[in-house]
Specification:
The chain has 860 residues and is of the alpha+beta class. It has 25 helices and 32 strands. The strands form eight sheets. Strands 22, 23, 24, 25, 26, 27, 28 and 29 form an eight-stranded mixed sheet that branches. Strands 3-18-14-21-12-10-6 form a seven-stranded antiparallel sheet, covered by helices on one side. Strand 28 and strand 29 form a beta hairpin. The N terminus is likely disordered.
Length: 860
């Protein structure tokens, strides 16, 4: 029976089938939501949105449970605010009138500054009960509040906003404080005020508020100190539209730095407790006892039971990665940061800010999906979505910020491991910052990927910095060591630090065998080893050198290290040199054979009587296995069961490797081993290009040691290359010849026919009437061999016909190849053996004739 239904019924049926099939899957609880209203996806279509429910996403984070004392100390910090507040308000300065001067225009010009100075008096300073005038202590001018009138509706709003912001920054209730004008201060060039504390100029005064007025000038910053901390505040402004301010508690030591140019004009207000207000602190929060407790605890970090590498204290407030800074901390984060920073400095620890980024993916707990959005990527940010199963969670600290600003560690992302996060439960109930739903596809069910971000203080002992940075990668740790040593100017201290830090670096060096073995781009990976070798050459410590050469070099070695590796090897002891070379030649020699050959050749050239005894024998013992095992290294001697091993893919020797192997073998009297190598290259031309690599190698050998060309092995290599070149390019290619090379690996009947077509000098096209599998096989072989053949399928009749046509690129490539071959012939002629042998003379004559034919051709 044939059943037919319309499209609307089909969609309903498909949805019902999907609902029933998913409802039969195992569930650990009810669905996380119900369908309610559309929302936009990343593709612009409407997608189902889940109604918000009481079921919150639960993130599981492994907190530290051992450092409960540290957690208790930091949680005991309960005061917000700092000893200063600083910022800029988008607004306008006050309408100001000064007795004897009149209305002040903004920005204040030099003429009006002169008028202000004419009615001002030299500012005094207090020393105990005395009031003194001394321009070596305080060099500025003042106008009393009684001679100044401030007004304007915009200013009244501005000063109220400034007062609210200053009160919040100082940890004061905004409705509990008020201000009154005290003075107008005018600083000329080089004007300043030495360190001092403000005296209580009125009842209820708890601090000072400074508002900068627009005037041209530079310098005159306020430097405020409290409890061992210091900050520099700039309230200068030279344009309208911005009102800078700075507030600080009255008992803070502060000074005004010299004005470098122009002037500085500012309003100074007394910050006072509003009459009748209660609970207003009159001094900055005292963290002394907290800092002392933290210092004692952090100083004993190395003695803790199973101490973590680092600890991350998650902040209360949310900060963007771009806006994260110590100066921008809010609420309780500010005093906690102050206490941690002061204690870290005393306990020789490092403190930074970073953003903890947690990425989580898994299978959603839901019994619904809409076939209309099958296989789509949907933005699920803000939607409750529990996970039935979590597949992967990664935690990384990014966006690093130094207390003095900037990412001075030079790191991008360091993993946060289990038991390194505090306080416990800080991320409980956290909602994802972003969440993406990947609807079900034909190969799998729906999945969810979500990300959480939370700023954190990250602290660790200074002595453990290298171990922490290694978690991002050895490159970050090596770069840090180099920067620290470059910043050290004292030669004696630099040497001690270099030895100490190198020892820590080598001890923390990670085991990267798997990563490097399968890494496709090792360009950046070689830099850490290179820089470390340079440091080792400077230090000259035998123990550190031995550790690197024996433990690290066998894994990290690449040919580019040779220039810096050679002096380190020459300075190593005989035992270390022997063991390190043995490790190099035994460790995956195939991908590094060119570099090892160059290294051995360079050392062999220096193995004379002036060098340490035994070097020649060490080199012979290490070069012999390289030459002996060359067939296996090049993949031409595959062992049983190794057919698919990556080590046995056929490798290729370039000109440099051929040159170095030959010169090292000749220098160390390994003639019989060289004969076998030459035999290998003759039998397997694919391992060493006889049309280019061998001529280049022979020319370089001739430039360095012409006598080596008369060695039997060198003459065999020369004959082999000359014969191959003459066989392929004795005559210039005919303009009518359209044959192309066909390096096909398959020998089936169809591929043999294709090969004959390619080698035909006249046939331009060929047809294969064959089934689909055969046509696909032929096209695959054409692509793999990179043949200059274009394929089309004629779909008339059954089976279809594959039509192959030669392209115009083939003859052009053949002409370019011929010209390169002639250039290689010239190299062989210049690097001919001097031994009088008939066959060599005949080959040389043939090469010269071929070169002359090229010179007489149309392109010659």
């Amino acid at each position: 029976m044939l059943l037919t239904i319309d499209s609307r019924s089909a969609l309903a049926a498909s949805r019902e089938i999907a609902r029933l099939s998913l409802s039969m899957a195992p569930h650990v609880g009810p669905a996380s939501g119900t369908l309610e209203g559309p929302f936009r996806t990343g593709h612009g279509e409407a997608a189902p949105r889940l109604k918000r429910t009481d079921r919150m996403a639960s993130l599981e984070l492994e907190y530290n449970t051992e450092q409960s004392e540290l957690e208790e100390i930091l949680k005991s910090v309960n005061r917000t605010g700092d000893y200063y507040a600083h910022g800029q308000l988008q607004g306008f300065p006050p309408r100001m009138t000064v007795s004897g001067v009149g209305r002040i225009a903004y920005p204040i010009l030099d003429r009006q500054v002169a008028d202000l100075l004419a009615v001002a008096e030299q500012a005094p300073y207090g020393r105990g009960p005395e009031t003194l005038l001394d321009r070596s202590v305080r060099d500025c001018w003042q106008i009393g509040a009684e001679d100044v009138e401030l007004g304007g509706p915009a200013w009244r709003r501005s000063i109220q906003t400034i007062l609210r912001r200053a009160a919040k920054g100082l940890g004061l209730p905004p409705n509990g404080v008020a201000v009154e004008l005290y003075k107008v201060l005018i600083y000329e060039r080089d004007g300043f005020f030495d360190e001092h504390r403000d005296t209580e100029k009125a009842d209820g005064m708890i601090g000072t508020l400074v508002v900068g007025l627009p005037v041209e000038g530079e310098g005159g910053e306020l430097e405020v100190q409290h409890a061992g901390q210091q900050v520099k505040l700039d309230v200068s402004v030279d344009d309208l539209g911005v009102v800078p301010y700075a507030a600080f508690y009255a008992d803070c030591v502060h000074r005004t730095l010299p004005v470098r140019s122009g002037h500085r004009v500012s309003l100074v207000f007394n910050l006072m407790v509003r009459q009748g207000a209660k609970g207003v602190p009159t001094t900055p929060s005292d963290l002394t006892s907290t800092i002392d407790r933290l210092t004692g605890l952090l100083a004993g970090w190395p003695q803790w039971d199973d101490p973590p590498q680092k600890l991350a204290w998650l902040l209360d407030h949310h900060y963007s990665e771009k806006g994260l800074s110590f100066s921008g901390l809010k609420g309780l984060d500010l005093p906690v940061g102050q206490a941690l920073l002061a204690a870290a400095r005393k306990a020789d620890c490092l403190l930074h800010l970073a953003v903890l980024k947690i990425d989580e993916s898994g299978i959603p707990l839901s019994d619904y999906f809409d076939p209309e959005y099958y296989g789509r990527e949907v933005d699920y940010t803000g939607v409750d979505c529990e996970l039935y199963e979590v597949n992967e969670v990664t935690c990384k600290l990014i966006g690093w910020e130094h207390p003095e600003g900037g990412n001075r560690l030079g790191v991008r992302g360091i993993p946060l491991y289990d038991c390194e996060a505090l306080p416990r439960g800080a991320m409980d109930g956290a909602e994802p910052d972003s969440q993406t739903l990947f609807e079900a596809t034909g190969n799998g069910g729906a999945s969810v990927s979500r990300s959480y971000r939370r700023a954190a203080f990250v602290i660790w002992p200074r002595s453990g910095t290298i171990e922490v940075l290694v978690n991002e990668g050895i490159a970050a740790a090596v770069d840090f060591v180099c920067r620290e040593l470059e910043a050290e100017s004292n030669p004696t201290t630099r040497r001690k630090r270099r030895e100490s830090m190198l020892g820590q670096l080598l001890k923390a060096w990670p085991d990267r065998r798997y990563k490097l073995r399968y890494s496709g781009d090792r360009g950046r990976e070689r830099l850490p080893a290179r820089k470390t070798l340079e440091l080792l050459a400077e230090v000259g410590d035998q123990d550190l050198t031995a550790h690197f050469l024996l433990k690290i070099l066998p894994v990290e070695y690449v040919a580019d290290l040779n220039p810096v590796l050679l002096p380190v090897l020459k300075s190593a002891s005989t035992v270390v040199l022997s063991k390190s070379l043995s490790a190099l030649v035994q460790k995956d020699i195939a991908p590094r054979i060119a570099g090892v050959a160059n290294l051995l050749a360079s050392l062999a050239c220096q193995a004379d009587g002036t060098h340490k005894m035994g070097l020649r024998e060490i080199l012979r013992l290490n070069l012999k296995p390289v030459l002996r095992d060359l067939p296996k290294a090049l993949g031409v001697d595959k062992g049983a069961g190794d057919r698919w091993s990556y080590r046995n893919r056929e490798a290729v020797l370039d000109a440099g490797a051929i040159r170095d192997l030959f010169m090292a073998g000749a220098s160390l009297d390994l003639g019989s081993e060289l004969d076998k190598v030459v035999g290998l290259l003759r039998e397997h031309p694919a391992t060493a290009d006889p049309w280019r690599a061998i001529p280049l190698a022979l020319r370089e050998i001739s430039d360095h040691s012409p006598d080596l060309l008369d060695w039997p092995a060198a003459m065999v290599l020369w004959r082999h290359s000359a014969g191959q070149l003459l066989a392929r390019s004795r005559l210039p290619p005919s303009p009518t010849d359209i044959s192309i090379d066909a390096p096909l690996r398959c020998s089936c009947a169809h591929c043999l026919r294709l090969k004959r077509f390619c080698e035909s000098p006249t046939q331009r096209a060929i047809q294969f009437k064959a089934v689909q599998d055969t046509r696909m096989h032929l096209e695959s072989e054409i692509r793999r061999a990179k043949l200059d053949v274009a394929c089309t399928t004629n779909k008339r009749g059954r089976p279809f016909t594959l039509v192959c046509r030669k392209t115009a690129a083939g003859p052009a490539k053949r002409r370019a190849r011929y010209e390169n071959d002639v250039d290689s012939m010239r190299m062989l002629v210049d690097a001919s053996p001097s031994t009088p042998k008939a066959d060599l003379s005949k080959l040389r004559k043939s090469l010269c004739e071929a070169i002359n034919r090229y010179g007489g051709s149309d392109s010659g």
